[in-house]
Amino acid sequence: MKKIEQIIPTLNLIYFDYDYKKNLFINEVDYTNENVKKEFFKITYVLSKHNIRFDVLENNSLIAINKKFSIFDRIIKKIKDKIEDYNNSKANIFLLNNQKRKWAKNIPLFEIKYLEKDIDLRKYDALVFSSQNGVMAIDKVNSDWKDIPSYVIGKESAKKVKELGGYINFIANKSNTYEFTNELVCELKNKKVLYVRGNKITSNISDDLNKNGILSEEVILYENNYIEPLVKEVLPKNSKIIFSSPSTVEYFFKTFKWHHSFKAISIGETTLKYFPSDIKPILSDKASLSSCIKKAILL
């Protein structure tokens, strides 16, 4: 019988994360999402196939490994979860976008403007996305992208590809574009690539691929533009601010003054490099907003 540690990498999970300490598969996306259901059934099928005991909790959002829960266990867990929800909802955790996440408040500091362009996708064998905005942008201009394998960085981008009906061929394990490019070189050998990006980038993946012998072109399909809040919110002391890109670092310090009691959480190593030298951000364990929020709660 295979150990769970051997099975996790083979599942290629997008919606569920595995908590090695608690022995839980955890999903924070609405289970009515068809892609979530498919991943849920894939997990339970593989666990059953390898004779690994498990139990399912909370509307299929949790899968516990090597444990069965009694009715009493379930009641106790619900009580603990309610207490945790109450405590976490009081935490001053801020996202600098308009994406709704449990326990986080939103201060949108930018807007995405999608650009209209005619693109002939027939000459490309692969599409590269470093942001979910790129996925949404290409979906607005040419639906044929769904027939071309997508290579993405981060689960957020992967979820958007799935949601819009695309085909994922590769999800980068690394959270910065430099290491992402290194991973792509082997994957994209002998393919013609289109890198879909915005007007602001920290490194040019297309140029890097070309330098490594991969025939790559790029197209700018969206703009990331700063928006100043109509009412500038006064952030309470001990606020925990999540920075999901280098541009959010720029926009935050353009809008707010930093207080020594604040905590900064960076979604990845690339974003980490853009903070002022006197601020020491904390790196999220994974390149996702959910992971950032979990890290903020622990601070």
From TrEMBL:
<protein>
    <submittedName>
        <fullName>Uroporphyrinogen III synthase HEM4</fullName>
    </submittedName>
</protein>
<dbReference type="InterPro" id="IPR036108">
    <property type="entry name" value="4pyrrol_syn_uPrphyn_synt_sf"/>
</dbReference>
<dbReference type="GO" id="GO:0006780">
    <property type="term" value="P:uroporphyrinogen III biosynthetic process"/>
</dbReference>
<dbReference type="GO" id="GO:0005829">
    <property type="term" value="C:cytosol"/>
</dbReference>
<dbReference type="InterPro" id="IPR003754">
    <property type="entry name" value="4pyrrol_synth_uPrphyn_synth"/>
</dbReference>
<dbReference type="InterPro" id="IPR039793">
    <property type="entry name" value="UROS/Hem4"/>
</dbReference>
<dbReference type="GO" id="GO:0004852">
    <property type="term" value="F:uroporphyrinogen-III synthase activity"/>
</dbReference>
<feature type="domain" description="Tetrapyrrole biosynthesis uroporphyrinogen III synthase">
    <location>
        <begin position="107"/>
        <end position="292"/>
    </location>
</feature>
<dbReference type="Pfam" id="PF02602">
    <property type="entry name" value="HEM4"/>
</dbReference>
